[in-house]
C-alpha cells in the first residue's frame, strides 16, 4: 500500500506497475512509468519558472493525456490545480483568474483564444499542448514540450500538510450565478478515493471509460480511484455520437462506465445500448442527480449480471457521500443508500433534531467526514452558511426508512408551492419518465396568478410527434393527485445542460 498522509499524487501514482497502461485516449496511450515521468517533468517546469507552493494554476482543455498530466503535475509540485470549463463565459473566466491570482494556465491550443488577452498583457503564462500559430507565436504562450528540459525531475514541495494544503480549487456555479471555488485538500481526495475504491471493489485490472469532463468532480473521482489501484481509464470525448462511445466501450474492453442521469437516458432511448452486449463490463456508476426509477429498472433488466452503483455526492464533499449497494437496488429502489465508510450522513429537521427513521418526516441531509472540503475560496459568508468544521449542509431534503436508508425528496429550492401545496418536482418527473416515449423530463414551478406557482413540465421525446401534451397529461391524471398534475407542458427537442451533463433548470421558464 502507498504511504499515506503526503502529497496526494505521490499516493495516486504509487501502485501502477511501470509497463501497465494508465491512460488511453483513442490510439494514444501512456503507461505508469511514462505518466510518472511526465508528471515530474511538468512539475519541474513550474518549479523552474518560479512558482511557489500554493500557487493556483489553471487548466483549460478537453479530456486528454495532456490535461491529465497537467492536473497531476500541478498538485505534485505543491501547487493548486484549477480545472476550468472549456465554455466558461469570459466574465467568469476573468473573475476566476482575478480571485485566484492565477499566473499560469495549461491550455489546449484550440482554447488559446480564450486566454490570449491576459497572456498578451504578460499577466498570465500559457503552457499549450503544442506549438501555437499566428499571433500566438509572439505572445506569452509556450508549448510545454519545449520547456520540459528547463525543469527538474525532483519535486520541491512534496511535504504538504494533507489536511490544510489545497490540491485543487473546483469552481461551481453558485445561487447568484457567480462561480464559487470549492477548496479541496490532499486529504479530502485521499479519504474519498479510499472509500470509493473500497465499495466498488476496484482492482488493478479494472478499466473505466471517462466520458464526463475532468473539471467535474465525478470524472476526477474516476481518475483518482483507478490510479489509486494501478488500474486504467479510457478517455472518450465523443458522447455527441453515443453509439461510438458504445463501440469504444466494447473495443477497449472497459470493465466500467459512469455517467449522470442524462447519460443513461440517452443510451437507453437513443442507442442500441439495450440490444448490445459488453463481455468485459462489470459495473456501472451513476451519480450527478437522481436517475428516474423506470430507467434504473431498464438497466437492471438489460444487464442483470453487471453491478449497478447508484451514488450521491457533491463537489463540496470532494465527490461521493453515499452509495446504494447493487444487491439492494430492487429492495430500496429510489434510495441514495447510506453514507460511505468514512462519511456520516444525518437528516436534520428545522429544529435541529434528527428525523425519525420510518416516519414521513423530512429534513436536510447533513454530512460529516474528512472528505468534506475546506469551504469556498475567498467567500467566508457562503462558507459559514454551508460548512462547519467537517460538516456540510447539502441543501437536499430527504426522509429515512426504518432501515436507515435515505431517500431524497428534492432540492430545497426545487420544491414547487402550488395552490398551498408543497410539490416535489422529482415526484412528477418520475411519473412522466415512466412513459416509454420519454427520453428526459424536467419539472419546475412558474409564476401563476391563481396557483402561485404552476407546475410546468419540459419533456424530450424519442422524436417529435410520438407523444402529445394531452397524452402526457392523461398519463399524469392516472398516477398523481390533481394538485400535482402539470398545468403546462412543453415538448422540446433537448433540455439545457451544464457542461457535466446535468439539466440546467435555471435556464427553463
Features:
509 residues; alpha/beta; 9-stranded mixed sheet; 5-stranded parallel sheet; 27% helix; 27% strand; globular
Structure in a nutshell:
With about 500 residues, the chain is α/β, with parallel strands linked by helices.
Give an overview in words:
With 509 residues, this protein is of the alpha/beta class. 27% of the residues lie in helices and 27% in strands. The protein is built from 13 helices and 26 strands. It has helices spanning 8-12, 32-48, 65-76, 90-100, 112-120, 186-200, 217-228, 242-251, 261-270, 293-302, 380-386, 425-433, 469-479, and strands at 21-25, 28-31, 56-60, 80-83, 104-107, 125-128, 141-143, 166-173, 179-185, 207-210, 232-235, 256-259, 283-286, 307-313, 320-324, 338-339, 343-348, 363-369, 387-388, 391-400, 406-411, 415-418, 421-424, 438-448, 452-461, 488-491. Strands 2-1-11-10-12-13-14-15-16 form a 9-stranded mixed β-sheet. α2 (32-48) packs across α3 and α6 packs across α7 (217-228). The longest helix has 17 residues, at 32-48.
Amino acid at each position: 500500500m502507498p504511504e499515506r498522509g503526503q502529497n496526494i499524487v505521490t499516493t495516486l501514482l504509487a501502485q501502477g506497475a511501470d509497463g501497465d497502461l494508465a491512460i488511453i485516449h483513442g490510439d494514444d496511450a501512456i503507461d505508469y512509468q511514462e505518466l510518472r515521468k511526465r508528471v515530474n517533468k511538468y512539475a519541474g517546469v513550474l518549479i523552474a519558472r518560479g512558482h511557489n507552493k500554493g500557487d493556483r494554476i489553471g487548466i483549460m482543455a478537453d479530456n486528454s493525456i495532456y490535461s491529465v498530466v497537467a492536473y497531476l503535475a500541478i498538485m505534485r509540485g505543491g501547487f493548486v490545480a484549477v480545472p476550468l470549463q472549456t465554455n466558461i463565459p469570459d466574465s467568469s473566466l476573468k473573475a476566476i483568474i482575478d480571485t485566484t491570482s492565477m499566473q499560469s494556465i495549461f491550455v489546449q491550443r484550440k482554447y488559446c483564444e480564450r486566454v490570449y488577452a491576459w497572456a498578451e498583457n504578460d499577466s498570465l503564462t500559457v503552457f499549450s499542448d503544442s506549438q501555437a500559430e499566428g499571433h500566438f507565436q509572439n505572445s506569452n504562450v509556450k508549448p510545454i514540450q519545449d520547456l520540459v528540459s528547463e525543469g527538474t525531475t525532483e519535486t520541491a514541495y512534496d511535504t504538504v500538510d494533507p489536511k490544510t494544503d489545497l490540491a485543487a480549487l473546483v469552481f461551481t456555479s453558485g445561487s447568484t450565478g457567480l462561480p464559487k471555488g470549492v477548496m479541496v485538500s490532499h486529504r479530502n481526495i485521499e479519504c474519498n478515493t479510499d472509500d470509493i475504491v473500497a465499495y466498488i471493489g476496484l482492482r488493478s485490472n479494472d478499466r473505466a471509460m471517462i466520458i464526463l469532463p475532468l473539471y467535474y468532480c465525478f470524472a476526477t473521482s474516476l481518475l483518482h480511484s483507478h490510479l489509486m489501484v494501478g488500474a486504467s481509464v479510457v478517455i472518450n470525448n465523443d458522447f455527441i455520437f453515443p453509439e461510438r462511445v458504445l463501440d469504444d466501450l466494447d473495443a477497449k474492453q472497459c470493465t466500467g462506465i459512469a455517467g449522470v442521469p442524462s447519460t443513461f437516458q440517452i443510451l437507453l432511448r437513443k442507442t442500441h445500448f439495450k440490444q448490445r452486449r459488453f463481455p468485459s463490463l462489470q459495473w456501472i456508476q451513476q451519480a450527478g442527480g437522481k436517475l428516474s426509477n423506470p430507467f434504473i429498472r431498464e438497466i437492471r433488466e438489460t444487464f442483470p449480471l453487471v453491478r449497478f452503483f447508484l451514488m450521491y455526492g457533491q463537489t463540496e464533499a470532494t465527490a461521493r457521500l453515499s452509495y446504494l449497494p447493487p444487491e439492494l437496488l430492487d429492495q430500496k429502489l429510489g434510495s441514495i443508500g447510506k453514507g460511505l465508510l468514512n462519511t456520516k450522513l444525518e437528516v436534520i429537521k428545522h429544529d435541529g433534531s434528527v428525523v425519525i427513521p420510518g416516519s414521513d418526516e423530512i429534513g436536510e441531509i447533513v454530512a460529516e467526514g474528512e472528505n468534506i472540503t475546506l469551504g469556498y475560496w475567498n467567500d467566508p459568508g457562503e462558507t459559514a452558511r454551508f460548512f462547519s468544521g467537517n460538516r456540510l449542509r447539502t441543501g437536499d431534503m430527504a426522509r429515512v426508512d426504518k432501515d436507515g436508508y435515505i431517500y431524497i425528496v428534492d432540492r430545497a429550492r426545487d420544491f414547487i408551492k402550488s395552490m398551498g401545496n408543497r410539490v416535489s418536482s422529482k415526484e412528477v418527473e418520475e411519473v412522466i419518465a415512466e412513459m416509454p416515449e420519454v427520453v428526459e423530463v424536467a419539472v419546475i414551478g412558474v409564476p401563476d396568478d391563481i396557483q402561485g406557482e404552476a407546475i410546468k413540465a419540459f419533456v424530450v421525446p424519442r422524436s417529435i410527434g410520438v407523444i402529445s401534451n394531452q397524452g402526457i397529461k392523461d398519463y399524469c391524471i392516472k398516477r398523481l393527485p390533481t394538485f400535482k398534475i402539470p398545468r403546462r407542458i412543453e415538448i422540446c427537442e433537448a433540455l439545457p445542460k451544464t457542461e457535466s451533463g446535468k439539466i440546467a433548470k435555471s435556464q427553463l421558464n
